[in-house]
Amino acid sequence: MTQTTDRAGPGATASPDTQLAIAVHGLHVRYGDFEAVRGIDLDVRRGEIFALLGTNGAGKTTTLEVLEGFGTRSGGTVAVLGLDPATERAALQVRMGVQLQEGGFVEELTVGETLALWQRLVDRPDRPERLLERFDLRARRDVSVGKLSGGEKRRLDLALAVWGSPELVILDEPTTGLDPESRRRTWDAIQELQEAGRTVVLTTHYLEEAEALADRVAIMHEGRVAVTGTLAEIVAAQPARFSATLPAEIADLPELRGTTQRDGERVQVRTDDLQGDLTTFLSWAAARGVRLPDLRAAPASLADIYHAVRTDQMEVTRP
Amino acid sequence: MTATTTAATVTPVGRVLALATTEVLLILRNKTVAVSSILLPVGLGVFWTFQFSSYGDPARQAVSITLQLAVALAMGIYITATQTLVARRQARVLKRMRTSGLSDRGLLVATLAPSVVLGLLQLAVFAVVNVATGAPMPVDPLPLVLAVLGGLALVVTAALATSVITPTPERSQITTLPLMFVILGVGVVASLAPAEGWWPALMLAPGAAVGDLAQLAMTGGSWTAATAGLPAILPALVATVGWPVLFGTLALRRFRWDPRH
Predict the structure, then answer these.
(1) Among A235-244, A278-287, B77-86, B250-259, the least confident range
(2) What parts of the sequence cross the membrane (chain B) (predicted)?
C-alpha cells in the first residue's frame, strides 16, 4: 500500500476511488501525549465486509470514530464514500449507518418509541415495522429499552444502524455479549447487507466472526495495522504447523526446512513448506517403523496470526 | 436486505422538533425530574411572591421579580439543562444522535429546548401570579425583556460549560450549586444596589445583571447618567453579553459529545 500523503490534517482527502468505500492513508490520532493511532493505511472496497481486529486499546474504535467523522485526526488522509468525514460529516450521515460499541439509548423510551423517533431523525426512509420484524423485536415493542436484555439491545442497535439500508454500515463489536444463537442471527443480517451490495466495516474480538464474515481483515496492534489482506492471503503468508507424538526412545529427528520444537514426546514443526516437510517427516517415520496416531497438520489459523501479533512475534507493517 | 421505503421527508426543523418533544415527554415521565424542575421552582417562586410582598413599592417588587427570574433560570433551566446534557452524553445518546440526520446545533437545541420552554412557562406562571396579586407593573419593560433574554443566554451557555466539568448526571447536583447560588444571591443584591459608586462592579458576577435590569424595569432610570457619567443600564448590558460569551467560548472549546474523550 502506498502512502500518498503524510501529516495532512482534516480537509485533506485522498483522491476518490470509485471502487473504494474507504481509503485511509497515514492516519494518526493523538490525544495529548498519547498516540492512539500511529500512521495506518486501510482500503475498504465497495460491497465487501471488512473486519478490524485487535486487542483492547489497539486503536480500532478510535479509527472507526475518525471514519464516522467524530474523531479528530492529527495526520493523514481519509476518504469515506469519497467524502472527508472531518469536513463533510453531514453529507456522509445520510449514506452511512453506525452501530455504537455500547449504549446510545434513552432507556426510558420503549423500543417502538425509539424506532419512531429514529424515523423522524434519519434521512433514509424505512419503516419501524420492518425492523421490528427483521430483528425479532416485535414482541418487545412496548418495553422500555432499559428493560431489554443485552442481546435485544444489540439487535435494536443494529436495527438503527441498518435503518434505510445505507451504502456503508460501521459496526463496533456487533456481537459482543451475545449468545451463540443471537450471534448467528446478527451474522445473517450482516451477510444480507452484503448481498444487497452494501459495504460493512466491523470491529470484533472474535476470530471466528472475522473468519465467518469478512472478505478482508486488518489486525491492529498498539495503534498500527500489523497485517491486512484477505484471510487466504494472511494465512498463506504465515507458517503452517504439524505435530506428532514420538516414542521417547526416538531421540533424533529428520532435517526439515521449518522450525522444529520438541517438548518431551511431542514434536511441533512450523514450516512454510507444509507438503515438503510433512513428506520428509512421514518418510522418516515410516523408515523407522514409527506409528503417528495423533499426527495433526494445519495451515496457520487466524488465531495463530492474532497471537503472533499480540505477542510481538510478527513484524508490524509500518506505513 | 431490501428496504421497504416510505415517502418520509424529514426537514431539519422537523428533526429538532422530534427530539425536543421526546425530551419534553421524558421530563414529564420522570417524576423526580418533573418535581425538581417544575413544581419546586414554581412553588418557591410563588411562595416568595407572598413572603416578600412589595406592598405596592416598585423597588421591593424588583427584588421579588429577581427572585422569580433567578429561580426559573437557575433552578429551572440551568440545573435541568446541565443534568440532561450530561445524562445524554454519558448514555452516549448524543453520540448516537450525531449518527442520525440531526446537525450538531440542532441536537443541542433539541436537547436544551425543553428545559428552556419549561423555564419560560414558570416565568409565565409568576407573571400571572404578580398580575393577580396586584403587584406594581414595570415602568420600563425593555430592561425586563433584556433580563429574561440575557438570563436565558447566561444559563444555557453556563449549562453547556458546566457539562464539561461534570462527569456524571449525579455529579451535576454538585457542579451546578455554586453558580446557582451566585445567580440567586448576587441577583437579589444587585436588585437592591444603587447604580452609583462601586456597586456597578457587582456586574462582574454572573446573574447580577438580571437583578439590576429588574430594578431598572421597575423603577426606571435606565438611561440616567450614573458612574463616570455613563447610562445606568450600561454595566448590566455589558454583563448580559459578556458572561454568555465567556461561557459559550468555554463550551465551544471544551464541549464533549462522548464520555470516552
Answers:
(1) A235-244
(2) 32-50, 62-86, 107-132, 144-165, 177-195, 232-252
**Domain boundaries defined on chain B:** 31-88+113-254
Which chain A residues are closer than 8 Å to B111 by Cβ? none
- Predicted complex ipTM: 0.84
φ and ψ at A97, to 5 degrees?
-110, 145
Q: How far is A209 from chain B (nearest CA, A)?
A: 20
Residues of A in contact with B26 (CB under 8 A): 106, 108-109
Residues B84 and B166: their CA atoms lie apart, in Å, by 11
d(CA A100, CA A298): 36
Of B8, B29, B96, the CB nearest to A125: B8
DSSP strand pairing (A240-245 vs A259-263): unpaired
Q: In angstroms, what is the C-alpha Rg of chain A?
A: 24
**Cell numbers of A90, please?**
453531514
- Which residue on chain B is closest to A163 by alpha carbon? B3
| CB atoms closer than 10 angstroms to residue A232 | 10
Residues of B in contact with A60 (CB under 8 A): none
Which range, of A75-84, B120-129, B147-156, B220-229, averages the lowest pLDDT?
B220-229
E-state strands within chain B: none
Residue B147's CB is within 10 A of a number of other CB atoms, namely 28
